[in-house]
């Protein structure tokens, strides 16, 4: 069985790994890629997505641009210090030019057309702010039945990265995230920072990737700024593949071990804006949010080898 997949993304180093993971997996039917503001502005995330697909020899995959800002408020900051000003540690210009034109339609319109045309339910993997997905579900409720599940990278149970309590993708548009997570008729898996940090890869993993061929070498070349950041976070030479962890679960359901908890998002304007509230009480007397599958664990070596083998040689 091939997984029909749409990726919504804001490339971003970890997004680049995630896109390549899907593009090089023979058991994935990558229907389309849509872009959103996030790590860098929308024009840059869109250019990066198109050129990454060209790098992976996938000009067959359509790309459409989506939201350039959150639903209600302008974002406060980007992550250029982590990903570099171009999203790829200054190496975006080394990517091949995309041969396929950008779609005339916007991101939501492309997703609607792909979902309506699909002969079986489609997995959506949002690995950036959830603005496009919130707009899709709100404006086109008829396509919900065509969505197999949403596997999103976002949220933090114990410790944030944009603030002390909020993860970047959720913090960038918490109103959109709250809207998506409230949809009780669309299955949803949330892959939080707590797990993605545990799935970090070290320098030896990156060396193997770089030695695997031109695509692996290109992906490794995107990591200098990212490495500098995670050297401080992890305490060793390595990086966190946040978005690729979520896409791995989208491709191979069950590679991550999930538990179901009520989840809500703080969309207030205070210091906890963007906080993911995961109600882990044994007997919630008044549950906060609707039940969501939260990725809590994985076989770390299996996950790392799965991602490396797909990026290095495809399948």
Helix-strand topology string: EHEHEHHEHEHHEHEHHHEHEEEH
Binned strand content: 15-25%
How many alpha or pi helices?
Answer: 13
Which spans of ≥5 residues are poorly predicted at pLDDT below 50?
A: none
How does the helix and strand content classify structurally?
A: alpha/beta
Write out the strand line-up for the largest beta sheet, numbering strands in chain order: 3-2-1-4-5-6-11-9-10
Radius of gyration: 18 Å
Shape: globular
Helix content: 25-40%
- Average pLDDT, all residues: 94
Main sheet attributes: strand count, strand direction, barrel closure? 9 strands, mixed
Distance between the termini: 13 Å
| Number of beta strands | 11
Kindly report the oligomeric state of this protein: single chain
GO molecular function: hydrolase activity
Domain Inosine/uridine-preferring nucleoside hydrolase: 5-299
Keywords: Glycosidase, Hydrolase
Protein name: Nucleoside hydrolase
Give a verbal description of the structure:
The protein has 315 residues and is of the alpha/beta class. Helices cover 38% and strands 19% of the residues. The protein has a nine-stranded mixed β-sheet with strand order 3-2-1-4-5-6-11-9-10, with helices on both faces. It starts with a strand and ends with a helix.
TL;DR?
The protein has 315 residues and is of the alpha/beta class.
Q: What are its keywords?
A:
Inosine/uridine_hydrolase_dom; hydrolase; 315 residues; alpha/beta; nine-stranded mixed sheet; two-stranded antiparallel ribbon
Write the layout of secondary structure elements.
Elements: E1 3-9, H1 13-23, E2 28-35, H2 42-55, E3 63-65, H3 80-83, H4 107-117, E4 122-126, H5 131-139, E5 147-153, H6 168-172, H7 174-181, E6 188-191, H8 193-198, E7 201-202, H9 203-210, H10 214-221, H11 224-234, E8 238-239, H12 242-251, E9 256-265, E10 276-278, E11 290-298, H13 300-313
Parallel strand pairs: 1-2, 1-4, 2-3, 4-5, 5-6, 6-11
Antiparallel strand pairs: 7-8, 9-10, 9-11
Organism: Amycolatopsis silviterrae
GO molecular function: hydrolase activity
Pfam families: IU_nuc_hydro (PF01156)
């Amino acid at each position: 069985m091939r997984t029909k997949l749409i990726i919504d993304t804001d490339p971003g180093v970890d997004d680049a790994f995630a896109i390549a993971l899907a593009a090089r997996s023979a058991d994935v039917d990558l229907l389309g890629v849509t872009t959103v503001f996030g790590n860098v502005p929308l024009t840059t995330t869109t250019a990066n997505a198109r050129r990454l697909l060209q790098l992976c020899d996938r000009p067959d995959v359509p790309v459409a641009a989506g939201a350039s800002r959150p639903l209600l408020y302008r974002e406060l900051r980007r992550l250029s210090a982590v990903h570099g000003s171009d999203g790829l540690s200054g190496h975006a210009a080394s990517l091949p030019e995309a041969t396929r034109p950008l779609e005339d339609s916007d991101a939501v319109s492309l997703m609607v057309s792909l979902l309506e045309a699909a002969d079986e339910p489609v997995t959506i993997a949002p690995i950036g702010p959830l603005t496009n997905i919130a707009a899709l579900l709100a404006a086109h409720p008829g396509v919900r039945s065509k969505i197999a599940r949403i596997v999103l990278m976002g949220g933090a149970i114990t410790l944030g990265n944009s603030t002390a309590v909020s993860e970047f993708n959720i913090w960038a548009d918490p109103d959109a995230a709250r809207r998506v997570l409230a949809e009780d008729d669309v299955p949803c898996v949330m892959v939080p920072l707590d797990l993605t940090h545990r799935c970090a890869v070290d320098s030896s993993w990156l060396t193997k990737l770089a030695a695997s061929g031109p695509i692996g070498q290109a992906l490794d070349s995107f990591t200098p700024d990212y490495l500098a950041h995670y050297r401080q976070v992890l305490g060793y030479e390595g990086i966190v593949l946040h978005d690729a962890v979520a896409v791995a679960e989208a491709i191979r359901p069950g590679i991550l071990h999930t538990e179901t908890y009520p989840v809500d998002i703080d969309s207030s304007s205070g210091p906890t804006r963007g906080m993911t509230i995961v109600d882990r009480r044994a007997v919630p007397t008044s549950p906060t949010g609707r039940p969501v599958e939260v990725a809590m664990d994985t076989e770390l070596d299996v996950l790392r080898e799965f991602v490396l083998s797909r990026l290095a040689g495809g399948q």
